[in-house]
Design a protein that fits this description.
Number of helices: 22
Largest sheet: 6 strands, mixed
Radius of gyration: 28 Å
Strand order of the largest sheet: 1-4-7-6-5-10
Number of strands: 12
Shape: globular
Length: about 525
């Protein structure tokens, strides 16, 4: 599906909106997930739907949920309680004597403005010192450095996990490998010397997904958006959003229990390599992994305040197809937890019995360019079997004139057997009577992956004659198959509607060349295209 680039731009919350988004739970949600709901937060909580005598208790329960999110992954319950107590103290401490703002409110608004405008950490420290020592009355409780302000945001749940990784991408130094100094696979060192200190060679930054999903449900306006997809489905059979796709229909039919609660999340994954400094000569690169939320309206899905950054994979040598799955382990563990067990969540848009529910999530698909697609799917993107969909049936041949492998041959193979283009030998070189190539499903992908793993285990040479990859294009079994639903949902039941579009693109290219060669006018080209579009096929 194409990105809706023509939709309106979502702006970041202003200072006035942040003040209107109080109490604290709504302030946190506006900073963490989006801003357009901030200006209407107070009006939503004061509606006639809830009794006046219970509104205050409702807000207090929402604040308590946010405090629980702050240390959601902590194993020690006392640490979470101490963090909540510290936040309570910060929210009750006035900025200075007689101020209507608390220390926590001021710090949040200040850091939000600085982060939106990409202010450096050194500049933030100088600004805080200037406001604290010169502008504001003395004494005041404003933090005097960026580190102190960031620690406050960490207690609120705005944090990430820094996980050391092998320089070659073999393992992550976590859990059973947390205390190792060298890689157990390649024996490469974990640290390097920088002056007198030791720093990790590679660091994977993981942004936990579960706290952010909980935080979105703690604001009434955002929580109501999380069920938008179930209330605005297409009723005329036309696809207007991801929720009208065949993949979502398959999820509804196969996973009835999951689809019964419209608050369960539908996610999409995006990954690609980027140069963070936009310098052509820079060799530094990294691979960000994003998650898209398809429960909300389509015009909000791709806004920056709703796109969830999940991983920052260091590069460039570590981001390879052989070791890419290693870096996805923290994210896949969260996705498995959200599918099998779920997490307890509080819905601020509902009341009484329906406020607390078990939140679950499913990954529908991945969105990449072709090199990243091959790296994520564990397939080859070159050679005679470069198509991940066709696999061994990829129509390819070696061109002596171009000295490389070319693909396609005849796109008319994907047309219905009775299509007139198949027997049209005037507009095309010859008739096309061959059937559509067989598609490689999940079972075939797993079979070829195990064949290559067994071939490599017994000492077979890779990428030479005899390697099963040369016959199938499958290099390995991707880590996405560890998700319980991925084998059935992604490969077997997802159909790509390319039958007409492939022919249409070929005809458009042919018509364009004829117009340029024989200098036909635009009217003739439009008339020809109209005849093509009116075709019943």
């Amino acid at each position: 599906m194409m990105c809706p680039r023509f939709w309106r731009h979502a702006s970041s919350p202003t200072g006035r909106e942040l003040l209107e988004m109080r109490p604290l739970s709504r302030l946190l949600c506006g900073l963490g997930a989006g801003s357009e709901s901030g200006s209407t937060a107070e009006s939503g909580s004061g509606s006639d739907e809830y009794p006046d005598d219970s509104e205050q208790n409702f807000d207090m329960e929402a604040d308590a949920d946010v405090y629980d999110i702050a240390d959601d992954n902590e194993e020690n319950g006392s640490a979470a309680f101490e963090g909540a107590e510290a936040l309570n103290d910060e929210s009750r401490t006035p900025l200075y004597c007689g101020s209507s703002l608390s220390r926590l409110d001021t710090t949040l608004m200040f850091m939000n403005v600085c982060r939106n405008h990409k202010v450096t950490n050194a500049c933030i420290t100088e600004l805080l010192h200037l406001f604290s020592k010169v502008i504001l009355p003395v004494p005041n409780s404003l933090p005097t450095s960026e580190g102190i302000a960031t620690s406050m945001l960490t207690r609120l749940g705005f944090r990430y996990d820094a996980i050391d990784a092998c320089r070659n991408g073999c393992v992550l130094f976590r859990r059973e490998n947390a205390d190792l100094e060298t890689c157990p696979v390649c024996e490469a060192g974990r640290f390097k010397r920088v002056g007198r200190s030791r720093v990790p060679v590679k660091v994977l930054r993981h942004f936990p997904l579960v706290p952010r999903l909980k935080r979105m449900f703690s604001t009434p306006q955002l929580a109501s958006l999380m069920t938008w997809h179930s209330e605005n489905m297409s009723r005329d059979g036309k696809m207007r959003g991801p929720y009208d796709s065949q993949q979502c229909q398959h999820v509804k039919e196969r996973h009835v229990e999951f689809s019964a609660d419209s608050r369960n999340i539908h996610l999409g994954l995006c990954a690609d390599g980027v140069n963070p400094y936009s310098q052509k000569r820079s060799t530094h690169s990294l691979c960000p992994v994003f998650l898209l939320n398809y429960n909300i309206p389509p015009w909000l899905t791709v806004k920056k305040f709703f796109i969830m950054l999940s991983l920052l994979i260091p590069g460039p040598e570590a981001v390879t197809a052989a070791h890419f799955d290693v870096f996805l382990c923290p994210l896949l563990e969260e996705l498995r937890q959200l599918w099998t067990e779920g997490v307890m969540c509080s819905d601020a848009a509902r009341w009484r019995g329906e406020a607390t529910f078990t939140l679950r999530a499913i990954l529908l698909w991945c969105i990449h360019d072709f090199p990243a697609y091959a790296m994520m799917a564990g397939t080859s993107n070159k050679g005679y079997c470069a198509c991940p969909v066709c696999g061994p049936s990829t129509p390819s041949r070696y061109s002596d004139h171009l000295s490389k492998v070319v693909y396609g041959g005849s796109h008319r193979r994907w047309l219905p057997p009775e299509h007139p283009f198949r027997r049209d030998a005037i507009a095309f070189p010859k008739e096309e009577l061959r059937e559509e190539p067989a598609r490689m499903d999940a079972t075939a992908h797993i079979r070829w992956a195990f064949l290559r793993a067994e071939y490599a285990h017994y000492g077979g040479r890779l990428a030479v004659e005899g390697d099963p990859m040369l016959c199938s294009g499958v290099k390995r079994l991707p880590a996405l198959f560890s998700l319980p639903y991925w084998r059935v949902g992604h490969y077997t039941h997802t159909k790509i509607p390319y039958q007409r579009s492939t022919v249409l693109f070929s005809v458009l290219d042919c018509v364009g060349r004829v117009c340029r060669t024989y200098q036909y006018g635009t009217a003739w080209m439009l008339c020809t295209l109209k005849k093509i579009l009116r075709s019943p096929y």
